[in-house]
């Protein structure tokens, strides 16, 4: 189940690029990347004993201060010891992540919370009781044990217990809380498979645990639980737990105003608030209007600007937009959970095409739709097309 060669393949000195065809050179480069990074494959339905055997080497790397990518129910994370400054710095360096962008700390049980937090606030206690393990991160006061790089020097830390047996087993085996942002290069769409991780990092990280595709597909909801009023919380990033679900536990649920404006002048309280995120190589534009208007936008870009156009849309409208040069469906409008699951994978697929622009279909903002549109808006830099003059 394990591919764990410890050194990269290298080309013999007598091979020069001019003597190799491009295809051969790419193939050898790919072989070198695959040989350099350790990969542990967890089969579906692995027993606790099997998990322990497969994950032990990865957990040892984490305990030793290295970084390892691993699956959660939301997206793949790039993990490191949250108590170690050097491990946290390796995460930032690998991703190219701005240093003022804090990391979420993952725990395997309630006991591990004490290793990084001075206390859970009353509102956090209620939310943890209801939604853990699951796609919810609570922002609470930190202690002096957690790395200052994880908190970006702020007084609070984001905590989450993932609802994924591989993630929790890995954290438990490592014996330390794991800081883990999404396992992608900063600014790119988040990874929902191990292949996405390897595409971004190649052999620049020590290893990746392959636990299959992520089931939620979007990062966790981040909630500020530091308000003195235990009946008030603020959503800093929408995710797998919706505002409506939070309101079933806490009466007053605010939404941080920067989620709409996209403008944060100070240090962000949580990941995903300040910087460009989730963006493929080609620019993304959200098209607001009827399907007929969407087709007009495609045609104008193709005929007047001579651009190849990609479209990211629901399965229901794929045939309507078949005039586009490349189409990726991300799920069904009838089940937005499928859209959440397919959004990042769909965006990533455009990087293997030659489209000059990606037009995206918007979705309803109720429930998980709020998180979907947050990610789409971020990927588009909040740019929308509402008339042909915008094209």
Write a structural description.
With 391 residues, the protein is α/β, with parallel strands linked by helices. Helix content is 30%, strand content 17%. The protein has 11 helices and 17 strands. The protein has helices at 22-36, 48-63, 85-95, 122-131, 165-174, 194-201, 243-247, 258-261, 291-303, 336-349, 368-379, and strands spanning 2-3, 38-41, 68-70, 77-81, 104-106, 136-141, 156-160, 178-179, 207-210, 221-224, 232-237, 252-255, 284-287, 309-313, 326-329, 357-360, 384-385. It has a 12-stranded mixed β-sheet, sandwiched between helices. The protein has a 5-stranded parallel β-sheet with strand order 15-14-16-13-17, with helices on both faces. Strand 10 and strand 11 form a beta hairpin. Helix 2 crosses helix 5 and helix 10 (336-349) runs parallel beside helix 11 (368-379). The radius of gyration is 22 Å and the shape is globular. It starts with a strand and ends in a 6-residue tail after the last strand. The model is unreliable at 1-35 (pLDDT under 50).
Strand order of the largest sheet: 1-2-9-3-4-8-5-7-6-10-11-12
Question: Largest sheet at a glance?
Answer: 12 strands, mixed
Any idea what the radius of gyration is?
Answer: 22 Å
Kindly report how far apart the N and C termini lie: 50 Å
Globally, the shape reads globular
| Secondary structure category | alpha/beta
Number of helices: 11
Approximate helicity band = 25-40%
Order of helices and strands, N to C? EHEHEEHEHEEHEHEEEHEHEHEEHEHE
The total count of strands amounts to 17
Proportion of β residues? Answer: 15-25%
Poorly predicted regions are 1-35
């Amino acid at each position: 189940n394990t591919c764990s060669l410890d050194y990269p393949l290298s080309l013999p000195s007598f091979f020069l690029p001019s003597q190799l065809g491009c295809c051969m050179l790419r193939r050898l480069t790919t072989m070198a990347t695959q040989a350099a990074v350790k990969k542990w494959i967890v089969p579906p339905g692995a027993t606790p004993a099997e998990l322990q055997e497969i994950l032990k080497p990865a957990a040892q790397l984490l305990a030793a201060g290295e970084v390892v990518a691993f699956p959660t129910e939301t997206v793949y994370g790039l993990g490191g010891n949250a108590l170690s400054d050097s491990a946290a710095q390796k995460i930032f360096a690998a991703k190219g992540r701005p240093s003022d962008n804090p990391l979420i700390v993952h725990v395997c049980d309630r006991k591990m919370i004490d290793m990084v937090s001075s206390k859970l606030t009353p509102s956090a206690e209620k939310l943890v009781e209801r939604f853990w393990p699951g796609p919810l991160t609570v922002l609470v006061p930190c202690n002096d044990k957690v790395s200052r790089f994880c908190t970006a020097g702020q007084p609070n830390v984001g905590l989450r217990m993932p609802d994924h047996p591989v993630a929790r087993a890995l954290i438990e085996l490592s014996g330390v809380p794991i800081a883990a942002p999404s396992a992608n290069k900063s600014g790119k769409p988040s990874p929902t498979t191990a292949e996405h991780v390897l595409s971004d990092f190649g052999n620049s990280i020590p290893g990746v645990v392959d636990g299959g595709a992520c089931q939620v597909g979007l990062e966790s909801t981040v909630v500020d639980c530091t308000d003195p009023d235990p009946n008030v919380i603020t959503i800093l990033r929408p995710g797998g737990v919706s505002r409506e679900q939070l309101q079933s536990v806490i009466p007053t649920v605010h939404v941080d105003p920067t989620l709409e404006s996209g403008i944060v002048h100070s240090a962000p309280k949580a990941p995903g608030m300040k910087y460009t995120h989730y963006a493929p190589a080609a620019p993304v534009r959200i098209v607001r209007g009827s399907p007929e208007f969407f087709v007009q936008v495609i045609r104008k870009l193709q005929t007047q600007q001579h651009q190849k156009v990609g479209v990211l849309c629901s399965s229901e409208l794929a045939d309507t937009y078949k005039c586009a040069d490349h189409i990726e469906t991300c799920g069904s409008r009838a089940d937005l959970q499928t859209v959440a699951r397919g959004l990042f994978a769909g965006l990533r697929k455009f990087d293997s095409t030659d489209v000059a622009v990606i037009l995206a279909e918007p979705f309803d903002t109720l429930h998980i739709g709020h998180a979907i549109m947050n990610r789409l808006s971020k990927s588009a830099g909040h740019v929308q097309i509402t008339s042909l003059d915008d094209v």
